Amino acid sequence: MSSILLQDPEKMPLIIITGIPSSGKTRRALEIKSFLEDKNKKVEVLSESELVIKSGFDKNDFYMDSKKEKAIRSEIRSSVQRTLNSKDVLIVDGSNYIKGSRYELFCLSKLYKTPQCTIHCDLPGEHAWLLNCDREEDRYSRDTFDALLLRYETPNNKNRWDSPLFSVTPEDKLPLDDIYHSLYSVDAPKPNMSTQSPTVSATNYLYELDKITQEIVNVVTAADQMGITSDIKLPSYNLIVDRSTSAAQLTRLRRQFLTYSKMHQVDLNQIAQLFVQYLNKSI
With 0-12 CB in 10 A as exposed, 13-18 as middle and 19+ as buried, what is 129? Predict the structure, then answer.
């Protein structure tokens, strides 16, 4: 990347690592992982480089092929959505050089009410190039390196999707206590109204039936707009919709479910589960 509440035991922070090639991103990710594990937090690192290798791509060819890059970015986005849960910390270790991609991850944070922060590994381009040349293997070619430098969109603390932002050079000591505070001592972001869960009440069956099913449709639609087309989590109900579909089909399926449920009333506590089962069988 599962209900994210404001109490420390239930938080599931998301940490975005970003920087130009050879700026120390993986080293910083591992430092944070070790620090949090010492505080009895379970931490998972989602590595862009490992996904590239797993996909069988040569790193230099990969970054010069927009279709391959788009596929990996989509996999990262989907993996974040699948991995987020109520207990673990997720670190996304990669260039994350496109601000639009960082914004999409921010939207996932809002969707699941997840605290997050951004770690920017700040390093001048020529310094990073020299570090790249010192590598014994897995180096960037000059063309690929320069192309990534030109594409890199530096994070800005004024952008809500980059904030809170911690910029560090290779010589800096990570402000680990401040990072921890930014994740565990603040409120999680409020979700958009379209993805916020209603409070279930038994006082009005038809009202609750309409609200619950619409909430589920909204979450599926929001996830689909961010490119998440499978294993769509519904954190309010601890359920998963197997795959997305068009807005028109979702509306049609919801209308069919409402018609049946108005004729055959079910327990309010079972509405979400039954609707999700209906969607999974129908899509």
Answer: buried
Residue carrying structure tokens 């769509």: 232
Measured between alpha carbons, how far is residue 114 from residues 3, 30, 79, 105, 142 in Å?
9, 21, 15, 10, 38
Tell me the two tokens of residue 252: 């049609």
Q: Count Cα neighbours of 10 within 13 Å in the Cβ-side half-sphere.
A: 11
Residues of the chain with pLDDT below 70 are 1-11, 85-86, 188-203
Task: Yes or no: say if 139 and 149 are a contact pair by the CB < 8 Å rule.
Answer: no
Taking the C-alpha atoms of residue 261 and residue 197, their distance in angstroms, rounded to an integer, is 20
Query: What are the angstrom distances between the C-alpha of 67 and each of 48, 61, 70, 150, 256?
Result: 15, 11, 5, 18, 38
Give the H/E segment covering residue 258: helix 247-263
At a CB cut-off of 8 Å and minimum separation 6, what does 125 contact?
A: 20, 149
Global confidence as pTM? 0.69
pLDDT tens-place string over residues 102-121: 999 998 888 878 899 999 99
